[in-house]
Amino acid sequence: MKKVVTSFLTVLLAASMLAACSQPASQPGGSGDAGGKKRFAIIFKNTGNPYGEKQMEGFKIAIEETGGEAILKAPDQPTAEAQIQMIEELISQKVDAIAVVANDPEALQPALKKAMDAGIKVLSLDSAVNAQSRMVHINQADPERIGRVQIQAAAEMIGGKGEIAVLSATSQATNQNLWIEWMKKELEDPKYKDMKLVKVAYGDDLRDKSVSETEALLKSYPDLKAIIAPTTVGIAAAGKVLTDKGLKDKVKLTGLGLPSEMAEYIESGVSPWMYLWNPVDVGYLSGYAADALVKGTITGKAGEKFTAGKLGEKEIIADGDGTQVMLGDPFKFDPSNIGEWKQVY
Prior knowledge:
Helices cover 43% and strands 20% of the residues. The chain contains twelve helices and 15 strands. It has helices spanning 2-21, 32-35, 50-65, 80-92, 109-117, 143-157, 174-187, 207-220, 232-244, 259-268, 279-295, 338-341; strands at 39-43, 69-73, 97-100, 121-125, 136-139, 162-168, 195-202, 224-229, 252-255, 274-276, 305-307, 313-315, 317-319, 322-326, 331-333. The strands form four sheets. Strands 2-1-3-4-5-14-13 form a seven-stranded mixed beta sheet, with helices on both faces. It has a four-stranded parallel beta sheet with strand order 7-6-8-9, with helices on both faces. The protein has a two-stranded antiparallel ribbon with strand order 10-15.
């Protein structure tokens, strides 16, 4: 465990040093033109999201390890329209690759196809675009395992009985929706006959809206026993609401959260435990995949392999009509380890 933590700390230290030495180039043309560097852009969902900042950090580290230039972009609001505008700008700048964390799986297709037609390598990460809009997708973990484990956690916390609710990100978020589908499939097991999913609410990955949605759930469902928030913004917002209202013994909380933001709620018992992966590694893997696409090492077909820096060799696998690369399994954060992890990210 200490070895893993040390590795992550090394990555974050390197990220902070890189950030201190240079600012991401997002202006037309980029600073890489003069030096002939390949330019790789990443577009996250929106600004002000700590998870997204870590993801872009990892992407930047990977691109600079491979000798390229990273362009980090995110709109003020988590909308497809804002991302489309950024894609159009990057096409005009003739970047070499675009990696996008999609706000909508379908709406970005015309812009991303235009990018690919212009010779730009396109991939998605974390929240996917449809298979026609990308060459490959970088997935944080197996969606089935992410969905099922959160229901299993909630069931254990409430003794397998009672009403539960989900506080998601946006209603169009592909990763969230897929996890929720697997949650519902898990709930079909007869062992959950005494549990009921009463509502899926959407906080749009905005803190204030997530707070409001949590308060609305508590008001609408006074017998609610657990909230599952598979979004780092949502789970932290729910943790604050449950803490402020003194409900830690009445309503349990689990989902996907940043250890640094959730430590106080795990230590207090508001959230007995929750899950996540390392967002730095998600971005880092995406950076190496983008580099491999640009170099022609991979084309995005199932069965192809590439080396992703410190993460080692990765294989592209089938994903419906498209392909993807899996980072790894979700990791459980609880009182026994949160003290270490909150220092990492």
